[in-house]
Amino acid sequence: MRNFLKAFLVFLCWAALALFLYNPNENYDSLETKVNAIENKQSSLSNKKTDTTKKEILKKAEITKAILKKQVKMNANTFPLVFNDKFITNSAHTRVLLPKKFYYFKDSIFNFLNSNNGKEIVINAVYKVNEILTDKTNFGIARANNLKNKLVKYGINSNRITSKATVKEYKYDKEGYYADGVTILVKNISESKRVLIEKEISHKTLYISFRKSSLEPTKALLTYTFEIKNYLKKHLSKKITIIGHTDNQGNTETNQLIGLERANLVAEYFTKNGIDKNRISVQSKGETSPITNNKTLKARKKNRRIEVIIN
Q1: Which of 71, 88, 123, 290 could form a disulfide with 97 if both were Cys (CB 3.0 to 4.6 A apart)?
Q2: Which backbone phi and psi does 277 adopt, to 5 degrees?
Q3: Domain span at residue 48?
Q4: Does 105 lie in the same domain as 24?
């Protein structure tokens, strides 16, 4: 009976310590608090007369602490974005279904990334081992890309979204739906990706709709504005040149004025959204620097652009 009680006591103590283990929704600080709590418990036990049972508890506490420390390190760099609703997948296709109320997820990610310049998201979608497409890819990567395309269309920089697929055994419900098929993780942007993003920020072509004396702001333009602000904070000596381009319809002098007017509207937008106007200059090249011929409407639309150069 004594041995049974000892064993039961060890079990209870170990179960209590197990409650300290990593919860995927916890933040970095709370995990560190757990590590400290375990260390304090170890210290209080060590200061008392130690019998075999306490030695076992201390040993298991040390293992738990080591696991938690590893998770603290991981959680500082990678953690899930938690939503009130879930992404739904279906056994019949590769689309990701969203309840109407869940469309807020796009705005949530948009705001998060614009407020956390050094982060990117990873869309991880699961698939069953037999869910293979004719091109030999799988349902998981197709689902992840389906969500990515929604976010890019919404205005998020595609370089800050990674698609990932994980094979997993799970069951669809009787209608063929599964509500835990997609997870969105946040992680630090790698150095190679940071270099790519900064290169694109420093020389970008924008296609913006203009109506009379105003431009039509988009989420993509706002994203780029946030990126410029963060870029300029890092590169204090650099300045922005905004160049307006047009097609060849109308006379050259008028096109020059139109290009300048549009460049000024973009400069005004940047300034209203927090970019120092003293670091912005504008110019127009009108119709003089086409990137393609002006023979078709599609070609002319390509030539009606704003060029942003930061150097």
Answers
A1: 88
A2: -65, -20
A3: 2-76
A4: no
